[in-house]
Amino acid sequence: xxxxxELAPQALTYFxxxxxxxxxxxxDLAALSSRxxxxxxxxxxxxxxxxxxxxxxxxxxGVFDKLLGDHEEENRELSDRFFTRYRxxxxxxxxxxxxxxxxxxxxxxxxQDLAFLSSRQTFFLRQEMDHINEWMxxxxxxxxxxxxxxxxxxxxxxxxxxxx
Amino acid sequence: MSSQxxxxxxxxxxxALAPLFKVVLMDDDEHTYDYVVEMxxxxxxxxxxxxxxxxxxxxxxxxxxxxxxxxxxxxxxxxRILGYGxxxxxxxxxxxxxxxxHER
Lengths: 164, 104
Fold this sequence. Notes:
- Chain A is mainly alpha-helical.
- Chain A has helices at residues 8-19, 26-30, 34-43, 49-56, 63-67, 76-90, 101-105, 114-119, 121-125, 129-140, 150-162.
- Helices cover 52% and strands 17% of the residues of chain B.
- The A-B interface holds A 53, 56-58, 61, 63-64, 67-68, 83, 86-87, 90-92, 101, 105-106, 110, 115-116, 119-123 and B 33-34, 37, 49, 52-53, 56-57, 59-62, 83-86, 88-89, 91, 93-96.
């Protein structure tokens, strides 16, 4: 995610208030010490963290090291907390065993676009046979395929779609 | 002189043992954080936490080093990254991320 340019001044004003120090532009933000940058991140509510990261994109060498605490022991706790909070915010929650990635991310109607479908081959081949069989049967009436036959299932799907 | 020789020898031994190559992952707009983390765990055996830090670095800095090793090891890892395929979460994603093998 990249923060729209027109929102950058508002974000900087907000960060200035949080930090109690004037941040006129992104270079001021990037010039903060590691500790101050991490302290700012620590004071921000989670939903605002992507805006901070977005502003730091392309802000120059060293900003990532600052988020790592410049490898100083005294900054480690703040750095670890930043990465934990940001990770929990931006990554999907772990998916349970019933989740079928094919059902979620390979809609059958999109498979009519063979260029799109071919770009999903490696994704398809990584899936468990149970999920492949469920998805193939429900959407195309194909299968079931025996264990460890991802490639055969893919070839069957491809043949089915190209001869229609 | 003696200690200098020992020091040189130690350095040479370290150089001989140290991985001389690295795999550098390049940023793009076609892959999510989730993809980067999943892909790096699968292709480079990174922990989820390390993979996430690499994802943040590639997003911020445009590149990140994800593996160190011999030339063959690095070519193997880069090949796995290049063969991992598109990000299924993004319809516009049509291929793998780019990775390059560099000398350290």
